[in-house]
Amino acid sequence: MHPRTPDHPGYIFLISILVTGAIVTATTISILLLGLAAERSGFAVVRSTQALEYARACTERALRRLRLNTAYAGAETFTFSQGSCTIRAIGGSGNVSRTLCTEGSSGGAIRRFEVNVNELLPFTRIEHWREVASITLCP
Amino acid sequence: MLRTKRRASAPGFLLIEVLLGLAVFAIFMGGIGLTILLGQDTTVAGGDRIRAAALTEQALEGARNIRDDDFNRLTTGSHGIVINSSGQWVMSGSAVRTTDGYRTFVTISTVSGGWLQVVARTDWKHGRGRSGSVLLTGEITNWRNAPNVGNWSSLTLEGGYTDAGTPLFNDIAVLGNYAYVSSETSAGGVGLYVFDISNLASPTRVSSAFFLGTAGYQLIAAGTTLYILTGDVNGELRAYDISAPTSLDGSDLLDDYNLPGSGLGASLTLDGTTLYVGARESGAASRDELYSFDVTNPSAISLRDSLNDTGTNADIALSGTSAYLASSMDSMELRLADVENPADLRIASGGGYNVTDVQDGNDIAVTGTSALLGRVNGSAIEELVLFDIGRNPLPTSPPGPWYYEVGGGVHGLAMDPTECYAFLASDFDSEELQVVRIQDHALPEVSYYDAATGAGRGLLYEGIRDRVFLLTNRSVHIFRPGALPSGCP
């Protein structure tokens, strides 16, 4: 006659349920967090793009002002509904070899441009116009 | 012996347990499922917003592209922006819809003359919980606009300066409200004159006490520095500090450079921090005909490179990585040098262009897709030659070149930036200033001026003011055009 085993009916099933539940719960929380992160990323992209547009707006304003008056010195900040932009002090003088740096910000995002202008008038010729992580060309 | 107490049987209890378990499981799984769906929805919503941001940014880029073509094509109001069948960005309708349900439009409003605010917006509605909008604000100005060039078919003498003596003016540079004019000294000139031209009708001489000490030839003003080629055999190239133009004196000399040979400097031009000097031909060793100097510090002019060539380089004009030289080479009056690396000057592949007969090239002007060569007087030649350099820096025939009879030698040459007009100073006795329309290559003379103050010796077209400065033996004449529009469509 075989000895009887201890009587624990269903414990394997219970353990399985618990483990499965933990996995499912973790997965669900991950999906939830990923979704929230994706939504936050969407808003962050919009803010960053707006900051870029503000930096561009300042560059456009500066080039226009320089063409009207090559003595324009920059060093101005403009405020918009969703942020602001800054024109740093413009380097060089006269009609040739000018440097221009602008910064746009929106909701914590900041984007920056450095522009080297070969000649302002009669045609504005730009040597380079590039986005930078930090401004080194201007004070 | 222990006896396990048998549990009393509870008929039907297992069914209740199963039902309870199923209910708990269903609630649990329902919660899990809803949470998963919510997470999925927010992920998709985030993607919707990123997609909308890209479309909105694209609309702003399209508006900027339209501005790059022609600022006046941007009109106020709400517009869709699309790429047409020709691959051009155009404004179309009131909005643009994508196949995946996004609607984008821009609203353009005027801030001031030549200055627009552009607000781009994208809306979407993809179902319950999947709707929204993205708004981006930008600004566009007309900094790329072509300058306004008047109608030079009708020129007017606006003002000028006439010296009591005969200085024999040679060249002119304009910077801000001041004009710097070089001259000979053989007939009483002082070598360098400075004029306040804030009132073009009545320019006034300043720094009257300044004496260059030698003849002045070609000159360039940039920033706070004036570079001038002189007849000083021990320092042909000079740099002066012109931050105070009304009190220029000898102490403002920053540096000078002694070119090999004696007084061989003939022409100069500036590109950023590199100064190019053309020299008269010399067969002697180490006396080259083209030099490049580093003028990052005008107080310490340093040689970068020099190039030996055949022929005098009487004038230089830069375009991209090419230097166009007005040369005395009989087989190549238009000479081409490769200056992509100022520290390694080379003659460009092909060398240049041989025009008819052997009269020397004396002046060169380059703008956009056109190069003009002015030559010394020749009875059997036409002294002004127009080249098309739009396809290749080295002119080839066809198309062109095209010729214009000046009636005398060319001693000053310029084009307006729209490539409509050529302006030339000539020693032709009754037409010291000639204006030629070059747009359609027929090269008709559209106006001229008969100066009573001697031969035409130099000329400058100043694009900022749309004015021509003509130098003669005794005078600086200032001309303005007729009213807009220019004579070129």
Quick synopsis:
The complex is a heterodimer of chains A (139) and B (489). Chain A is of the alpha+beta class and 139 residues long.
Index terms:
heterodimer, A: 139 residues, 5-stranded antiparallel sheet, 5 strands, 42% helix, rod-shaped, B: mainly beta, 44% strand, disordered N terminus
Structure description:
The complex is a heterodimer of chains A (139) and B (489). With 139 residues, chain A is an alpha+beta fold. Helix content of chain A is 42%, strand content 32%. In chain A, strands 1-2-3-4-5 form a 5-stranded antiparallel β-sheet. In chain A, a hairpin with a 6-residue loop joins strand 2 and strand 3 (96-106). The longest helix of chain A is centred in the N-terminal third of the chain and has 58 residues, at 11-68. The N and C termini of chain A lie far apart (95 Å). The model of chain A has no long low-confidence stretch (mean pLDDT 88). With 489 residues, chain B is mainly beta. In chain B, 12% of the residues lie in helices and 44% in strands. Chain B has one helix at 13-69; strands at residues 77-83, 89-92, 96-97, 102-112, 115-125, 131-141, 151-162, 169-175, 178-183, 192-196, 204-206, 216-222, 225-230, 237-241, 253-257, 265-271, 274-279, 290-294, 302-307, 313-319, 322-327, 334-338, 346-353, 361-367, 370-375, 384-388, 402-404, 410-415, 421-426, 433-437, 445-449, 458-462, 467-471, 475-482. Chain B is elongated and about 135 Å long. Mean pLDDT of chain B is 92; it is low at 1-5. Classes of the chains: A alpha+beta (139), B mainly beta (489). At the A-B interface, helix 1 of A face helix 1 and strand 6 of B.
Secondary structure layout plus pairing:
The complex is a heterodimer of chains A (139) and B (489).
Chain A: H1 11-68, E1 74-80, E2 83-89, E3 96-106, E4 109-119, E5 125-132
Chain B: H1 13-69, E1 77-83, E2 89-92, E3 96-97, E4 102-112, E5 115-125, E6 131-141, E7 151-162, E8 169-175, E9 178-183, E10 192-196, E11 204-206, E12 216-222, E13 225-230, E14 237-241, E15 253-257, E16 265-271, E17 274-279, E18 290-294, E19 302-307, E20 313-319, E21 322-327, E22 334-338, E23 346-353, E24 361-367, E25 370-375, E26 384-388, E27 402-404, E28 410-415, E29 421-426, E30 433-437, E31 445-449, E32 458-462, E33 467-471, E34 475-482
